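Hello,

Our lab assistant flagged a job as stuck in the queue for most of the afternoon. It eventually completed. Since we weren't sure the result was trustworthy after the delay, we are filing this so someone can double-check. Below is the sequence as submitted and the structure that was eventually returned. Let us know if re-running is recommended.
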Amino acid sequence: MAESTVEIRELDPFQMAQRQFDMAAEHLHLDEGLRKWLRSINRELTVQFPVIMDDGRLEIFTGYRVQHNLARGPAKGGIRYHPQVTLEEVRALAMWMTWKCAVVNIPYGGAKGGVKCNPKEMSEKELERLTRRYTTEISILIGPDSDIPAPDVYTDARVMGWIMDTYSMHKGYSVPGVVTGKPLSIGGSLGRNEATGRGCMYTVCQAAQHLGIPLEGATVSVQGFGNAGATAARLLAELGCRVIAVSDSQGGIYNKNGLDMKALLQCKQEQGTVIAFPEGDKVSSTDVLEIPCDILIPAALEAQITAENAPRIKTRILAEAANGPTTPEADEILADQGVLIIPDILANAGGVVVSYLEWVQNLQEFFWREERIREQLQQIMEESFQHVLHVATEEKVGMRMAASIVAIRRVVQATLDRGVYP
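-- returned structure --
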């Protein structure tokens, strides 16, 4: 057992994603050839490119674009800017995107991109030059019919606008469908900015209903008060939940009586961090995970919940708004504790669902009202949750395994229906 513990702790993100796949593939008795195919990366591109900084010096940056599987349609996945971006991480995120698109049954394959940089230390002009050069480097892969990027960690609608413009300049005409999550003025969709957090909220509501937990007064703790985490917290507070703890990259804040969401969001916007909020006790980002609550939402980075801290986590619902926040070993511990886990490929799929709706609108050149988009998102998220819950009950497995089973079955069927070329 000790050897197994050491082995799991040393897994890089892609090995962790592969291990999760292997467990589901074993449960499905998947053919060995299909296992090899689906646990492998279809295509990956590593680029190193120069950017002239504001002071005139030349810096070299490394970027990636990885496509895991294209059986169900064009590749889809975000682009992140972060100093700790690695190829292994991007591979894992691409694989998770394949399963995420499949579990909510939208016609995409999985991809992901990233640039190793620290956007917090770069000016807007430096970020724009970096984005435009990176876009040019990966333009051999991306396109509205081949690979459609979207925002991720430390990228936003502004960055997507730069990507869309750069790609369009190379084509000689506007191609709004090359990215999603872009500004409304150039083909973005209403509801996209809050889609990930809103989708997470819908799945939490379904989980609470399943467990018989009243939302009125239910306590919520959120690690990662960025777009997804802050939106989920705000929407759950509007439904009557009591958000007692939140954190961002600089630390956390805790108030057992509940945090004023409107004031906290204003503080975050004005001060850039939640730790400046005066109405609570300062805690670490790790502490936020371990505060007893009804609903825990990890919305930061990968591998935040491990075998080391999982025994101290006291929650009834764990909704993974982040990608890969829970290690496989921690999964087993939380399952033994009776925690209902809404896995990342389901809990945070709202972003890719509305990205899909944006892409459809771009292809049609016809745009919908926000009410229709919210209705579509709610329907897809609730139906997907109930389908995964049904499989979990039928197969007598946890929600993560059930979500993987649903997703892998769909990708396998598409793979078999397409056959092997040539």
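-- support follow-up --
The delay was a queue issue, not a problem with the job. The result is valid. Residues 1-9 have pLDDT under 50 and may be disordered. The first strand starts at residue 43 and ends at 52.
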